[in-house]
UniProtKB/TrEMBL annotation:
Gene3D superfamilies cross-referenced by the UniProt entry: 3.30.1490.190, Winged helix-like DNA-binding domain superfamily/Winged helix DNA-binding domain
Quaternary data: Homodimer.
Localization: Cytoplasm
Record has Zinc as a keyword: yes
Gene coding for it: zur
Coiled coil: none
Family: Belongs to the Fur family.
Pfam families assigned: FUR
SUPFAM superfamilies in the record: Winged helix' DNA-binding domain
Keywords: Cytoplasm, DNA-binding, Iron, Metal-binding, Repressor, Transcription, Transcription regulation, Zinc
RNA-binding listed as a keyword: no
Protein species of origin: Vibrio marisflavi CECT 7928
Protein name: Ferric uptake regulation protein
Amino acid sequence: MVISLDQQQIQQVEEICANRGVRLTPQRRMVFQLICASKKASTAYELLEDLKKTEPQAKPPTVYRALDFLLEQGFIHRVESTNSFISCCIGNAHKHFSHLLICDVCGNVTEVQDDHLVSLLSKNAEQHGIHIANHVIESHGVCQTCCAKTKD
């Protein structure tokens, strides 16, 4: 299985890794490419099955270690409600908060950046004496494409 991924995106990830002094191993790269190739969030076992097509010896720890690395570096996000993973829409030049819009019919996930929403959350937390270190905002519903299909 050959995955076509924007070479510029891979180059950006490689440069970030080099600047941080971490390695984007072939397995990490492949898991990242698999995640980027799908609009849907991928589970670790789905990624393992896809990875086995090119690396038959791949085992669950290979995928879990790659996912841990990619999460730590901010190249992907975990979709908490489905325990699955999507690529980060900004290639992680810096840590950020995002809002995930999830279609419960087709499984597509869209990452949205909304500074106003983040500001409002921070303000609410501050009023209650909480410093936000991390948050997960996931909204589930039905996307326009799936809504249109049900009207047919």
